[in-house]
Amino acid sequence: MFVARLVCFVLLLLSLSCLSFSHTVTGTISNDTNMTLSLTKVLIDHGKVSLNPDDILSAYGETKFELSSPIWNDRIEFTWGYTPTIDWCGDVPSQISGTYKYTFGLNDCTGSNVMCPGSGNMTTIVESCSGSVGSSEPVFYILMYYDE
């Protein structure tokens, strides 16, 4: 009886381990504007950080971040935010941000927008938000559009 329970327990552990995989994300944040940006938000809800984005992101520069999920809690949730070092939009809050989420094989990437009437808008677009097993390499592009 003891051996049968032990075998069932081992089989249960093996089946659960097949449902969970570890995941690593190496993301790029590309500042495609003529403004220097300062890191003003870093939120890590799930995952382990091995590389934080740079505190200062120069005009037309880029930085990287890297996180991983443990094998038994296969989730990553990471949000970053940058604010221009110059006041380009008056009284409008101008933090631009992005979020990467990974949950048990599903990726989700989102960016934000800052609308500045009379000046233009800043937006974040995302490419390559994929890689369901093993690793992902999303790229967040920060873009600026000026009103004419």
UniProtKB/TrEMBL annotation:
Residues 1-22 form the signal peptide. The keyword Signal applies. Keywords: Signal. PROSITE patterns: PROKAR_LIPOPROTEIN. This is Uncharacterized protein.
